[in-house]
Amino acid sequence: MRVATFLGLVALLGCTDSAAPTTDVTGIWASSDVQFGMTLELTQRGDSVQGSGSGWAFSALPSPTFAIAGKYARPQLALTFSSDTLVLAHFTGTVSADGARLAGVETFTSGADTLTFVRQR
Question: What dotted CATH number matches 22-119?
Answer without folding.
Answer: 2.40.128.120
